[in-house]
């Protein structure tokens, strides 16, 4: 099935914000996190930027591959905002095309390519030097739609309780839920 942008999805250009302040990918409360900033694009697409920090190194002066995979995963995950669906990564296949030095800004874009039942297929690229620069990383992913209970059931009790008693967090979680 062709992916369809939800009628209440954020408008193209709108900053999506963090889905959870403690998220390693997008949260503001993680000092060594990616602080990735994503914006809605046209259709079912997003664009995002992430600047590699010294805490993200693998080899001297170079980004760790797992951190780059996290940036791709987070960008792909933010497509949920446009579908108003809660989905988690089931599969993430990553190509590392060029080394990414510390201090580099990675320009990411992601798109939902197909949907089938609970399955959401998507793809992402990360470019360096500018939004039109050479591709440094890319990924193909399969996300699986889940109920909010997925997190309540599997998450550690203390963080779940804190999230559920935070009105801002509850509001953000609702933004992912499909309107009947
Ligand atoms: C309160 C806070 C709210 C905030 C929400 C914001 C969240 C956003 C977070 C974003 C953060 C960034 C993002 C993150 O980092 S998300 C964090 C990383 N991901 C996870 O933790 C997910 C862990 N995995 C699971 O929980 C389960 O395995 C899931 C839910 C994924 C599937 O288990 P479930 O029991 O539900 O489904 P099923 O096993 O019956 O399978 C169903 C179908 O899918 C197919 N399949 C399954 N897996 C794979 C695979 N690997 N390759 C190929 N196919 C696969 C399977 O064959 C079957 O197909 P079919 O036989 O029907 O044809």
Automatic annotation (TrEMBL):
Keywords, alphabetical: Apoptosis, Cell membrane, Cell projection, Cytoplasm, Fatty acid metabolism, Hydrolase, Lipid metabolism, Membrane, Transit peptide
UniProt membrane topology term: Peripheral membrane protein
Pfam families: 4HBT
GO biological process: fatty acid metabolic process
Parts of the chain that traverse the membrane: none
EC class: hydrolase
GO molecular function, one term: hydrolase activity
GO cellular component: cytoplasm; membrane
Database matches in Gene3D superfamilies: Hotdog Thioesterase
Compartmental location: Cell projection, Ruffle membrane; Cytoplasm; Membrane
Position of the signal peptide: none
EC number, as in UniProt: 3.1.2.2
CDD domains: PaaI_thioesterase
Residue ranges of every copy of the Thioesterase domain listed in the record: 61-121
Reactions mediated catalytically: dodecanoyl-CoA + H2O = dodecanoate + CoA + H(+); (9Z)-octadecenoyl-CoA + H2O = (9Z)-octadecenoate + CoA + H(+); decanoyl-CoA + H2O = decanoate + CoA + H(+); tetradecanoyl-CoA + H2O = tetradecanoate + CoA + H(+)
Similarity annotation: Belongs to the THEM4/THEM5 thioesterase family.
This protein's name: Acyl-coenzyme A thioesterase THEM4
Classification of source organism: Bacteria, Bacillati, Actinomycetota, Actinomycetes, Kitasatosporales
């Amino acid at each position: 099935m062709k992916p369809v942008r939800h009628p209440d999805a954020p408008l193209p250009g709108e900053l999506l914000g963090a889905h959870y302040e403690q998220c390693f990918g997008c949260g503001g409360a993680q000092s060594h996190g990616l602080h990735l900033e994503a914006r809605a694009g046209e259709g079912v697409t997003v664009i995002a930027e992430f600047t590699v920090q010294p805490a993200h190194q693998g080899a001297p002066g170079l980004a760790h591959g797992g951190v780059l995979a996290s940036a791709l995963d987070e960008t792909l995950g933010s497509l949920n905002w446009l579908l108003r669906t809660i989905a988690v990564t089931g599969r993430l296949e990553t190509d590392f095309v060029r080394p990414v030095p510390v201090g580099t800004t990675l320009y990411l874009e992601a798109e939902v390519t197909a949907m089938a039942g609970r399955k959401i297929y998507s793809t992402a690229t990360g470019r360096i030097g500018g939004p039109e620069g050479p591709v440094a990383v890319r990924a193909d992913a399969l996300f699986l739609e889940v109920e909010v209970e997925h997190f309540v059931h599997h998450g550690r009790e203390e963080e779940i309780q804190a999230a559920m008693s935070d009105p801002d967090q509850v509001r953000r979680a609702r933004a992912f839920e499909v309107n009947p």
